[in-house]
Amino acid sequence: MLFDHPSFAAPDLRERAARLLIASAPMTQLTLADAMIIVDSMEPVFVTIGTVVMEEGETEDTGYMALVLEGELRAESGNGIVGEKMVISMIGPGSLLGDMGAIDGSPRSATCTALTDVKLAILSSAMLLALIDSHPAVAARLLLAICTGMSTRLRENNRRLLALSNVSRAVQKELDATHAVNRRLLGA
Question: If you average pLDDT over every residue of the chain, what do you get?
Answer without folding.
Answer: 86
